[in-house]
């Protein structure tokens, strides 16, 4: 980053700054004439000086320039104007004054809008520049830089800098020229009044900035304290599990409370100093009118200053305080923003950034094969001890290399050096004559892959994480409106942003040997199957959803598979396993809410307890006459739950089985029941709503409280049509209703196949149903479609919706799919058991027969499978070639049918 804020602003916006400044200068003549018009209206039109010689008319719009006697006197006529009467002159001058007000307002509007646009463009440029530098942070810098603080800087702390950028040059010129124009006008009327105004202005510009220096120091403290607060909150959030495990809630609350108190104290000092300075500035601003009224009035009494001039002087001075105040504020903002900018440049210091290396031509992007040489490699530990001291090695690539750990950090450090994830070492690593450290980042990202012990996944789907390494540059442009594209590209060029669109085609299909998205999915699924994650993807697919409009053929096949599954259940005597959804029957395996809606909620207002508060649903219940019955049922449930849960600690398994009432709600329901026992039968509306929500989650076959009889079930089925009618009439798109002849997009794929609920009353029903679904999936050739839907499964923040093994598998496949020349494995197989790790190892060795594989091993039991063994002893690197590597077994790939049935079961 440029060290000087003003140099950074001028470098990237001088053209726009000069254009706005030119408009500012063009506005000054109109501003000066608007200051002189009040004097002309009072003296010439109202007091009649233009008619004092008995003239019936006077010139209007005559343009001349007169200078005062103290400058020698005299005048120069430009245009003689039109002859008008006294009333005509009054209204004519007033109209010209109004015209100048509109013109000056138009200038201010254009200038302010232009400043705002300029500031936003520069803010966009600055944020992008900072983000680009984040991508250049060295691995060593990333270990010391807090991500939350960096994000806070880019998002929040540069915001005031962006707001100032538009004002940096334009505001002092605009306000300064306005103030000078007003001050010159006052001096033209009376030199002494002008000198008084100048003296007060000099005092303001001397005292006020000095008093505000303390505000800058306090502002810097506040900014650092706020940034540290954000960083600490992020640390607690990242380690929240440790807080819960060790019951450190009170300590963390106390620490955050102390930080907030410190921040409050700083803000209090800022307010005291800020408003004292503001009060003093206001006093000085009001002191000048006192002199004008007193001294100007004295001059008017003596006849050396006419009334029109005094009114014009006072009117002109009214225009002085606002620009002067804003100039003082601008100076304060300048100092404050410079402090913020200095802190930003310190955070993004040059020593934290890696070299900006890019591949200049295709010759630099050559396969990383040939002689790999390491010379005099030295790596120091955090305490000054030498982990690797003068190590060296040489062998030919491609090769499989085992980095055998001696219990220390040397093997992992060497793996990070070879993967270009560590640059703080002395010595040199070369591939042929190419220095590994000097390779362009684009070449390293394309041809080297690294899988560490802690896989990093981004929020999004599994597919998006798997193809992340294929999005290095856009392959083709997207279909975009030409005018919108031209505008987007023009703005990107003006702000230093990339002209590529996120909607472009970024996936390099050719690189992975695919022609389209379908073939790429097959490659991804094949790799996931080979690393042992195929079963998980299949289950994710069954839990996923499809869009019938995007995949109409698949939707039709699912409906056919649904019917075939129903026939299979009936022909094999398994009809009792699943109770199907029937528009004319009550489903005893589903909740009362599901039976009433006969569909799947797609918005939160129709889910859970929100349904009991929904106005449309309550209206349907009232019209069906079910509200009172359901409230009474809720009262029975509450009484039963109070008896069951009495004396049980929170977290007891019964709370999960009877999920009507949480442990924290027992007190409220207990108070409600006590009021009922005292004979208070008039329930409040919120109590009725709370009770109504209980039976909506009731399943007769699961909870078995005997609350539903055939008559009540029939009434619920009758109300089902009324609910649908009211929801469709009110255009409420909160529920997608079931239809036996089509797919429900809001329901999981498994539910669409079953189109019913698994029975709670049949032993081992879920396993048997899973086997039946697997059979139908094979019969209708739906496995690939199901697994593709599984690729859309969301991984969550940092992959937290996946298990450790699933995260490791996704990370490994992400490395494999881009087909690197060199793959470095450092603890990536740690989440797997020994047998699975051995299978994965053999798989990797088989896949990388033509490429290079470096793997950190905890011992040498598997080292004979590699071509080269690299050991670390007493800071030295000992390299030896394996006499004859063991034959590489092919990775196990079980049949799809066995895999599905076995895993689901």
UniProtKB/TrEMBL annotation:
Main location, first listed in the record: membrane
The UniProt record lists the keyword Transmembrane: yes
InterPro entries reported in the protein's UniProt record: ABC1_TM_dom (IPR011527), ABC1_TM_sf (IPR036640), ABC_transporter-like_ATP-bd (IPR003439), P-loop_NTPase (IPR027417), Type_1_exporter (IPR039421)
Domain ABC transmembrane type-1 intervals: 93-329
Keyword presence, Nucleotide-binding: yes
Annotated GO CC locations: plasma membrane
Low complexity bias spans: 883-897
Cell location: Cell membrane
UniProt keyword annotations, A-Z: ATP-binding, Membrane, Nucleotide-binding, Transmembrane, Transmembrane helix
Entries under Pfam families matching the protein: ABC_membrane
Membrane topology: Multi-pass membrane protein
An example Gene Ontology molecular-function term: ATP binding
Stated name of the protein: ABC transporter ATP-binding protein/permease
């Amino acid at each position: 980053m440029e060290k000087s804020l003003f140099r950074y602003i001028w470098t990237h916006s001088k053209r726009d700054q000069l254009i706005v400044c030119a408009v500012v200068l063009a506005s000054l003549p109109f501003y000066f004439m608007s200051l002189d018009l009040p004097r002309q209206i009072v003296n010439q039109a109202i007091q009649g000086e233009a008619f004092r010689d008995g003239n019936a008319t006077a010139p209007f719009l005559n343009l001349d320039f007169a200078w005062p006697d103290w400058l020698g006197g005299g005048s120069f006529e430009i245009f003689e104007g039109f002859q008008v009467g006294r009333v005509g002159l009054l209204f004519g001058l007033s109209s010209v004054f109004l015209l100048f007000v509109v013109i000056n307002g138009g200038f201010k509007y254009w200038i302010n809008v232009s400043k705002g646009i300029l500031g936003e463009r520069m803010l966009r440029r600055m944020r992008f520049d900072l983000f680009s530098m984040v991508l250049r942070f060295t691995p060593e810098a990333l270990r010391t830089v807090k991500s939350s603080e960096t994000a806070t800087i880019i998002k929040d702390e540069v915001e005031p800098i962006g707001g100032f950028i538009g004002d940096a040059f334009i505001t002092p010129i605009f306000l300064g020229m306005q103030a000078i124009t007003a001050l010159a006008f006052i001096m033209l009327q009376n030199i002494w009044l002008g000198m008084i105004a100048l003296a007060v202005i000099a005092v303001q510009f001397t005292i006020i900035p000095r008093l505000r220096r303390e505000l800058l120091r306090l502002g810097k403290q506040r900014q650092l304290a706020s940034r540290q607060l954000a960083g600490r909150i992020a640390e607690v959030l990242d380690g929240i599990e440790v807080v819960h495990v060790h019951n450190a809630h009170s300590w963390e609350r106390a620490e955050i409370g102390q930080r907030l108190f410190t921040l409050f104290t700083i803000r209090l000092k800022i307010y005291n100093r800020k408003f004292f300075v503001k009060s003093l500035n206001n006093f000085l601003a009001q002191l000048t009118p006192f002199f004008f009224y007193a001294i100007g009035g004295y001059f008017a009494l003596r006849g050396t200053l006419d009334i029109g001039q005094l009114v014009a002087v006072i009117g002109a001075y009214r225009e002085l305080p606002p620009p002067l105040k804003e100039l003082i504020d601008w100076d304060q903002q300048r100092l404050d923003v410079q402090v913020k900018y200095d802190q930003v440049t310190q955070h993004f210091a040059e020593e934290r950034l890696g070299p900006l290396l890019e591949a200049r031509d295709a010759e630099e992007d050559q396969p990383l094969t040939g002689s790999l040489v390491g010379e005099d490699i030295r790596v120091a530990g955090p305490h000054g001890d030498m982990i690797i001291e003068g190590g060296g090695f040489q062998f030919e690539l491609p090769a499989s290399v085992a980095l055998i750990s001696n219990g220390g950090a040397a093997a992992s450090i060497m793996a990070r050096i070879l993967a270009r994830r560590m640059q703080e070492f002395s010595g040199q690593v070369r591939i042929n004559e190419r220095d590994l450290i000097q390779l362009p980042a684009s070449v390293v990202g394309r041809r080297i892959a690294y899988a560490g012990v802690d896989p990093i996944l981004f929020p999004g789907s599994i597919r998006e994480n798997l193809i992340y390494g294929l999005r290095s540059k856009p392959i083709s442009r997207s279909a975009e409106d030409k005018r919108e594209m031209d505008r987007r590209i023009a703005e990107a060029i003006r702000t230093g942003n990339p002209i590529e669109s996120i909607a472009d085609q970024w996936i390099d299909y050719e690189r992975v040997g695919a022609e389209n998205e379908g073939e790429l999915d097959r490659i991804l699924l094949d790799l996931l199957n080979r690393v042992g994650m195929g079963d998980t993807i299949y289950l994710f697919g069954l839990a996923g959803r499809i869009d019938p409009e995007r995949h109409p053929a698949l939707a039709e096949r699912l409906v056919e598979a649904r019917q075939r599954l129903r026939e299979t259940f009936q022909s094999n005597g398994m009809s009792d396993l699943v109770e199907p959804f029937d528009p004319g029957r009550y489903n005893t395996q589903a909740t009362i809410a599901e039976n009433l809606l006969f569909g799947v909620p797609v918005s939160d207002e129709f889910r859970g307890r929100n349904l009991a508060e929904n106005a449309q649903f309550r209206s349907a219940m009232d019209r069906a006459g079910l509200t009172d019955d359901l409230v009474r049922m809720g009262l029975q449930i509450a009484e039963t739950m109070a008896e069951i849960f009495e004396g049980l600690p929170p977290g007891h398994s019964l709370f999960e089985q009877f999920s009507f009432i949480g442990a924290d709600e027992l007190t409220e329901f207990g108070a409600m029941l006590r009021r009922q026992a005292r004979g208070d039968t008039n329930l409040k509306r919120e109590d009725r709503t709370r009770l109504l929500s209980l039976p909506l989650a009731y399943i007769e076959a699961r909870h078995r409280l005997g609350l539903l009889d055939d008559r009540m079930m029939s009434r619920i089925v009758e109300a089902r049509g009324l609910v649908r009618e009211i929801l469709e009439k009110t255009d409420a798109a909160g529920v997608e209703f079931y239809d036996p002849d089509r797919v429900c997009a809001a329901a999981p794929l498994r539910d669409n196949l079953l189109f019913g609920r698994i029975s709670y009353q049949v032993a081992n029903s879920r396993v048997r149903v899973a086997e039946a679904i697997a059979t139908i999936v094979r019969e209708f050739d739906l496995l690939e479609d199901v697994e593709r839907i599984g690729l859309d499964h969301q991984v969550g923040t940092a992959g937290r919706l996946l298990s450790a093994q699933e995260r490791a598998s996704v990370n490994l496949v992400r490395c494999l799919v881009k087909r690197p020349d060199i793959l470095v494995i450092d603890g990536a197989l740690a989440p797997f058991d020994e047998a699975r790790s051995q299978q994965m190892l053999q798989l990797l060795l088989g896949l990388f027969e033509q490429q290079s594989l470096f793997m950190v091993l905890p011992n040498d039991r598997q080292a004979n499978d590699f071509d080269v063994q690299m050991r670390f002893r007493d800071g030295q690197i000992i390299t030896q070639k394996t006499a004859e590597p063991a034959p590489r077994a092919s990775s196990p790939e079980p049949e799809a049918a066995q895999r599905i049935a076995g895993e689901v079961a």
